[in-house]
Amino acid sequence: MKEYSVVGKSLPRIDGVAKATGEAKYTADLELPGMLHGKILRSPYPHAKILNIDTSKAQRLRGVRAVITGKDTAGKTIGWIPELPQTMDELGLAMDKVRYTGDAMAAVAAIDEEEALEALNLIRVDYEELPAVFDPVEAMRPDAPKIHDVEHNICHKILLNFGDTEKGFKESDHVREDRFITQKRYHCAMEPRASIASIDSSGKLTIWATLQSTYFFRRDLAKLLDLPERMVRVIRPYIGGGFGGKHEVLPLDFCAALLSKKSGKPVKILHTREEDLIASRQKHPSIVEVKTGVKKDGIFVASEVKAVFDTGAYAAFAPIVVYMGGGYLSLVYRMPNIRYEGYCVYTNKSIASAHRGFGNQQTRFAVESQIDMIAEDLGLDPVEIRLKNVTQPGDITPCKYKITTNGLAECIQKAAEKSGWKEKRGKMQGNQGIGIACTGYVVSARALVPHDSSAAFVKLDENGTVTLIAGAVDIGQGSDTTLSQIVAEELGIALEDVRMMAPDTEMSPIDLGSYASRVTFISGNAAREAAKDAKQQLFEAVAGKLEANIEDLEARDRRIYVKGSPEKGISFIDAVLTSQFSGKPILGRGYYDPPTEMPNPITGDGNVSATYSFGATVAEVKVDKETGKVRILKMTAAQDVGFAINPQACEGQIEGSIADSLGQTLYEEVIEEEGNVLNPTLLDYRIPRASEMPEVECILVETLDPEGPFGAKGMSEATAVPPVPAIANAIYDAVGVRIKELPITPQKILKALEEKGGGKR
Predict the structure, then answer these.
(1) Which residues are bridge partners to 565 per DSSP?
(2) pLDDT band at 285; cut points 50, 70, 90
(3) Cis geometry, peptide bond prior to residue 743 (ω within 30 degrees of 0)
(4) How far apart are CA 637 and CA 694, in angstroms?
């Protein structure tokens, strides 16, 4: 492998000092002259008609500068898939009726938060309560209350049918059916949603917001406000975590903008933690039924999966989540016959949307748990059955995913070896157990718009520094550092020589944002192309001075020199000055749109990603049979990263995914009763503490993907998928009970042990 100077090195994050010292400014930290504070009035009912809203008393309050209701809006709706008009269902403010407890109906802007809250209490709303439905299966019944104008409250359904599953089951030696349930989760980012909007005298809006995509955010906010996109400027300050929860325009963004327009002043709206938990976005709960047919030697033959996703009151990302929940089914293991029936269903509950794992985590929990059950039925080792069936480089899955590089087999083998699988599986004492699970994931996804592109500019400055201008959004994953390393390597300079501008739609080129593990791969390729373009211009400027052909020049160690003759060269700064003094300031341009396809709207097939990421995780646990409490002893995670641009950052993503997965598996759940969230604070919403983190061993498997920058793939979301079923499988190995519903609480374990008669199998 080629020896690099900057990429492939564990270098510190470029934003690390600013964040550690408090220098970094988040949206909530920003103040504008004359700024007002906004608050939103939310529905106390899960389903009701709005008969009348009286804001007269609120408007007369001394400190109030603006009040808005649905009547002040343009009545536009947004959603993620314009081709599915029934999913374009979300207004800036509810107009005719509310659909969940927390639905936004009105907003005020006042001189301070206290005055704004007092104004909310003065708004009077007349409602007509409507019947509500809270269970997705009940919601699909013909007589269920109608939430939107769709049949059986089905927001979207998809059928993927490849091969002949009926024939496959007949040819199978063993067929197994199981049902699994996953819970609703809150993203629980450290920073709740926040927004500051300011409309100037020309009618142009500038908004600072916590978001993962300036591109989609501007598109949807402009539509809600009935403004041309050129009249909306979006600036992204530092962001305190996203995990999929900061993609969409929320009522606070829309209300801040409309209140600013009405008041003529900047308006800030911040979610409290309770508001954020109830009224932002959450992870889809699901019911997943899996039927799998195998040969007696463990070779997979056929699979049928039915998944019902509860999307809550509005569609949001649900159509993509339900599609990807099925698309991933053939990515990890070879399965010639697959049928997937997926539904996203409206209920009168808080809204579910994109969350790390994006449909994959729900179905993978079910599939990976059942694989262990099948292995036991057949007397096979869980590692052995997986290795028999893994996809390989060059495979084309039934839904037409083209697998190029694939390190899954190596990931399984290395994770098993490092964890001591052979010595521990079924042999651990003291109610300890070990389990494994695998994953496959996209590295970008052409499923939202016809392109999946990113662009970047690289500006060379006369002081020897380089400015990277890109629209990629760092939500905590460290992508600013990764992109800067790519640029530094290509230009032959040091990481500290690169400065990256925060995304700003007024100046940054196109980038779709942070989702689908796309930033290193898509934005990284764009940044590298921009650096290559700048380097080519630099070489052209100094080739004559060095009496060399352009193709004979090399950039390294802050110098431009002739290959094979490093003494014959010029410093990077002097090279830049040479170009500038000749009247050619250098601005490199780069663009990348991967060779992928939009999925077929009828069959669902199509190669949505240019490459795919794979991984395997082994969990070791100890279960207290007296209390049902689970302690995670160790996690061994092997991940196909293509090439580790920053190994330390890759390991950090794995460790973060483990922490995230502990919550998903053992603790976290948004508890709702009759549409009301019963645990809307972090006192009651249980998340893992630092003291509960186990030892984590990270294994980076490098496959050098030909399409990725320096061979890199995205990997951060993939690492969050296998720990959940791996822990569930380890619990079974420890005490012999299979829990099929998340979270796996002590109560569920104790109940299962009691039903089993106690003791290990």
Answers:
(1) 562
(2) very high
(3) yes
(4) 12
